[in-house]
Amino acid sequence: MDILKSLGHPEEIINLLRFKMGGCRAVMPKLDYVSRACCKCPVSLSLFKRSLLITPRSTTTTGSGAGSGATGSGGSGCLMAGGRFGGGRRPLRAARAAAAPRALSSYRRVSSASVCASCCQGAMGDGMRTCYRYLNQTSRSFAAVIESLDGDLRHAVCIFYLVLRSLDTVEDDMSIPLEKKVPMLNDFHTYLYQPDWCFTESQEKDRRVLEDFPTISLEFRKLGQQYREVISDICHRMGMGMAEFLEKKVGTMKEWDLYCHYVAGLVGIGLSQLFSASQLADPEVGRDTELANSMGLFLQKTNIIRDYLEDTQQGRAFWPQEAWGQFADRLEDLAKPEKLESALSCLNLLVTDALRHVPDVLTYLVRLRNQSIFNFCAIPQVMALATLSACYNNPKVFGGVVKIRKGQAVTLMMDATSMEAVQTIITQYSQELLQKVSTTDPSRAKTLHILGVIAEKSAPLQPALQSKSVHLSPMYLSAAMLLAAVSWQYLSATVAQAQGTTTTGGGDMPGH
């Protein structure tokens, strides 16, 4: 049964095979940059394959407490931050086909000149080529999707990522004494305008971005003023937030929101402002910082929830004490077998808190008009919801890692390219979560309430879902295959038992 489950649904297997055989072009055909360039570029194809791992956070070991690793569980990930996602289902073929015309007409198409960095390096200066090389070296998830963005926005987001990666590297480096690290974090934004500033004492694996920071800062200064102002401001605010949490644990739920704001919400705000500055998104997208913050918080909280075991084993504490303190004396006690019921109650409480950001996610995405930006933002959000669905009430969170099937990751990438499809996916996972809510869970009422709100926001697609209910989806085919396998095993066993009983003259078969 575990083997059958691990194979996933038939259509996921087909999509994974399509990706293995055709790469980027096969799974994301709506991006011109992919179909015209990256599908033929071995470097970009390799990057895209690695992005399926969806492991956005730094894996460096940090000290105890939330402050000792402000990027420990997700870090200052961009809107593409995510995780190894698992669970979920996808009866979306009809929805995707119906949504395709709108996806091609309602969103700005990628220009034919918009190709990946590795395919057009000849058109770049040495400094920018170096920056893209650092991007590929330091990010296992973001390189391909950043390179898919349109026009000069692509370079701006690349530099934005590298600046924040440099800031993260300082924060993560436990060899830097606090009396030196705190001023560095607070002043880091000023180094963008100091041509010769670099830091050669870091012990972190990504130290190269600090050692060669003059190259990054030079390319930063070449960006348009509208981009420089955003990047500098976000870097300043994030550095101050990291400094604040260096020796401060995440205590209350409000502090959890604040911590996630510093390490992820600010990234969402910065990206949104870059989108608007590029004129590829309406000014409203950049101005509405509350929605942009929710985009980041939803992803960051998902990472923190999923990575409980890894973080606690490495001495990091990101679950808020206000939550886990209701169920255990110590955060690490939740991993004890005798604490399973309490652990699941705490887990479900945090999942419910994360779900309250989903309505904001839907409102944010509906405002996007550029296809490359929409894909850049939408794909990680639906993957995060899939992850929460897989984590909800799941003991594996406390004993291992909740992973995504690669076929499901590819399928979500293929599907989440229009608002209609995203609403359908969110509706599906909301229904899946609803079926998992226990009648005895302490957070049951809050969970049902937020799922109701999400269902209302996704209501436009409900008729489409109902109209497809008469068809046999891959989910039902998989269930039928699984049921057939179990039935065959049961019948084989009972026949063998019956034959043995006849031979020995025994009585009734056990179980009857």
Automatic annotation (TrEMBL):
Question: Any idea which GO molecular function terms this record carries?
Answer: D-glucose transmembrane transporter activity; metal ion binding; squalene synthase [NAD(P)H] activity
Broad EC category: transferase
What the entry lists under CDD domains is as follows: Trans_IPPS_HH
Q: Where in the cell is it found?
A: Endoplasmic reticulum membrane
Q: Which pathway?
A: Terpene metabolism; lanosterol biosynthesis; lanosterol from farnesyl diphosphate: step 1/3
Q: Does the keyword Chloroplast apply?
A: no
* Principal location listed in the UniProt entry: endoplasmic reticulum
Q: Looking at the record's lineage, which domain of life comes first?
A: Eukaryota
Q: What is its EC number?
A: 2.5.1.21
Q: How does it sit in the membrane?
A: Multi-pass membrane protein
Protein function: Catalyzes the condensation of 2 farnesyl pyrophosphate (FPP) moieties to form squalene. Proceeds in two distinct steps. In the first half-reaction, two molecules of FPP react to form the stable presqualene diphosphate intermediate (PSQPP), with concomitant release of a proton and a molecule of inorganic diphosphate. In the second half-reaction, PSQPP undergoes heterolysis, isomerization, and reduction with NADPH or NADH to form squalene. It is the first committed enzyme of the sterol biosynthesis pathway.
Q: Mind telling me what this protein is named? A: Squalene synthase
Q: Which organism is it from?
A: Merluccius polli
Q: What is the lineage of its organism?
A: Eukaryota, Metazoa, Chordata, Craniata, Vertebrata
Q: Its encoding gene is what?
A: Fdft1
